[in-house]
Every structure is written in C-alpha cells, then in structure tokens.
Amino acid sequence: xxxxxxxxxxxxxxxxxxxxxxxxxxxxxxxxxxxxxxxxxxxxxxxxxxxxxxxxxxxxxxxxxxxxxxxxxxxxxxxxxxxxxxxxxxxxxxxxxxxxxxxxxxxxxxxxxxxxxxxxxxxxxxxxxxxxxxxxxxxxxxxxxxxxxxxxxxxxxxxxxxxxxxxxxxxxxxxxxxxxxxxxxxxxxxxxxxxxxxxxxxxxxxxxxxxxxxxxxxxxxxxxxxxxxxxxxxxxxxxxxxxxxxxxxxxxxxxxxxxxxxxxxxxxxxxxxxxxxxxxxxxxxxxxxxxxxxxxxxxxxxxxxxxxxxxxxxxxxxxxxxxxxxxxxxxxxxxx
Length: 336
Ligand code: NAD
Ligand code: UFG
Prior knowledge:
Radius of gyration: 19 Å
CATH topology of the domain at 2-182 and 234-262: Rossmann fold
Strand content: 15-25%
Shape: globular
Distance between the termini: 29 Å
Order of helices and strands: EHEHEHEHHEHEEHEEEHEEHEEHH
Number of strands: 14
CATH superfamily of the domain at 2-182 and 234-262: NAD(P)-binding Rossmann-like Domain
Number of helices: 11
Largest sheet: 7 strands, parallel
Bound molecules: nicotinamide-adenine-dinucleotide, uridine-5'-diphosphate-4-deoxy-4-fluoro-alpha-D-galactose
Strand order of the largest sheet: 3-2-1-4-5-6-11
Helix content: 40-55%
C-alpha cells in the first residue's frame, strides 16, 4: 500500500513513517519544512534502510500539491501537516486558520479528484475543551477549544464528518492524541522545538542537559492528588503504531471513525519530574509558579475503543519515554 504522509518530517510524522516502512508500506512525504528539517530523511534512512520519496511542498499551494498527486498514486493519506503551537495561535490566529484549514481543504479536494478514499487525521484531546470529567471518551461532547489552534482541530473534524456524510465511500479516522512524548530509541529522531520549549518534556530534557536552568511548574493548587496538572503522556512510538493499526481499520471501509490515542493513565507534573529523575539519574530543579492561562487541571483518555476496534494499546510507560527523550536530547543538544 502506498501512503501519502503530509508533515512526515515532523515529530510524530517521522516516527510514523518509520513504522509504516517497517510494516512494508511505501511512503511519500509532503512537507514544507516550516517546522522540521530535511536531515530527518537521512535519519529515517539510517534507521530503516529505506529513503522515502520526499516533496518539499506546501499543502496550501494547491498547484504544487496537485503536481504531487499527478506524479504519485496513493491508496491512503495520513495528514499531520499543520501548525501546532497553542500560544502562537493566539497571537497569529489568521495564519493558523489559513494553514491548517487551507492545507486540509486542498488535500480533500485532491483526494476527491484523484479517487483517494482513506484519510487519517491528527486531531487532539484539545477538542474536548475543558473536560467536565475524566477519563474522556470518544462520544464526550466536542466543545469549543480554548485557543485558535484547537479550534482548527474542531473545525477539521467537522469538515471530515460532513465529507464522509456526503461520500459513503470516503473513510476518515479522527485520531485524538493526548500528550505525545519520548523519541525513537536510537536517539536519532525526536522532538526538536524551535526556541524555548512550551511543552513539559522538551523543557525537562533541556534542563537535564544544562541548556535551561530549572523547570517552572505552572501551578500546584489544582484539584489533583499533588496539586499539579495531570495529563495522559503517550510514547511517540506507540502513537506511530496507532496509525498503522488505523490504516488497517480503514481498508475495511468503516466511514468516519474516532479514536482516543493515549495510555488511559494520568500523570502529574511532579510525578513526571520524579519519573525522569529515576529513569535518567539526572536531578531536575524546579520552582512553582502561577498557573498558565488556559491550562486544565486534568486531562486523560479512556482508550478502550482503540483497543477493541484497532487491537492497539500503548506498550511503553513514562519511564521509557523519559529515557528515550533524554537520549535524543543528549545526542542532539542543538536539535536535528
Ligand atoms: P510537527 O510540527 O513536528 O510536524 C508538523 C509538520 O508539518 C512539520 O514538519 C511542518 O514542517 C509541516 N507543515 C506545517 N504546515 C505545513 C504545510 N502547510 N504544508 C506542508 N507541511 C506543513 O508537529 P507534530 O508534533 O509532529 O504534530 C503532528 C500533527 O499532530 C499536527 O497536526 C499537530 O497539530 C497534531 N498534534 C500534535 C500534538 C503534540 O503534542 N505534538 C498533540 C495533538 C495533535
Ligand atoms: N507544564 C509545566 N511547565 C512547563 C510546561 C508544562 O508545569 O514548562 C505543565 C503544564 O502546566 C501542564 C503539563 O505540564 O500541566 C503539560 O503541559 P504541555 O504544555 O506539555 O501540554 P498541554 O497538555 O498543555 O498541551 C498539549 C499539546 C497541545 C494540545 C493540548 C490539549 O501540546 O497541542 O495538549 O490537548 F492542544
């Protein structure tokens, strides 16, 4: 099976490309390299022995993107391409709507023209808004997200629902990722954020190698067991495997399907700091700061549906993820 992977040189995309190649899929990547580097292709080749076909194309550039569909033939698409920084989306909402919605509508028009019937979409737990209760189930209400980035995910989910309702032959999987962390166990690929990391794990790994002084914990008075925020952290390799399982599901013609991809387990910030110290032997100094605006107290998934329907379950725990993220950071102190 030949698969188009948009955003395939990014953090989750590159890990998924590896799993696809290991499972004998042929992969074509389209990425504009706005948040990743071409060197990722060398590393995928080192790990798998296969260099995926690559087009440096912006999915918002309809003509260039159409050129890829004219040259290549696909049976399915995994759509990772998108801008993803929550804070930046508040400052640059128009750019976020234009990029995330524009790339997706171009993709869907091209899939229609070229008869491609299956799409896996990178959605997010952010579509659940401020949860009324945890764990979150797939049929919990999709609420207004708390920022423009999240809104693009809500809107794209809606677009895919409408597209599937109109075309009974179209298959779309909305994968709601919880908090992806970790790295490829080789240390060759991992999360490579620009500037000061916003997310917890890359911040911790930069403290661990001495690039940042200490971790700032955003609040310790939440209604959680130790007062710090609770999230469902999933190893990126598990997440990648979830995409392979989803492609297998889509060939059974299910129409629109929705899955939470998480571990089902909530971990607090302090628990994560302790797990990191235990997994790596490196001490992480921290201070307690005011809560970060827009943060929710606790957010974790029920993942029974993915287990039942995809035969997929997360295998790694936070200790594995801490070890792998640290290994990647040590080997790539200045990124890829
Ligand atoms: P990433 O930034 O590492 O990867 C996204 C890739 O898309 C990058 O390589 C970027 O260059 C590319 N891209 C962006 N706009 C493009 C465009 N118009 N045309 C072509 N390429 C474009 O991000 P990631 O963490 O790998 O996330 C992948 C997807 O998963 C995103 O859609 C993101 O919103 C979603 N997601 C991520 C998380 C997370 O915490 N990492 C959580 C939930 C959902
Ligand atoms: N945190 C800190 N200090 C930091 C960074 C994070 O204490 O320097 C805390 C946060 O307050 C939160 C937890 O660590 O309690 C996790 O924060 P992240 O920023 O790593 O992740 P979020 O859950 O806030 O955000 C993630 C994705 C978003 C997505 C959101 C909702 O990064 O893309 O989940 O699904 F929108």
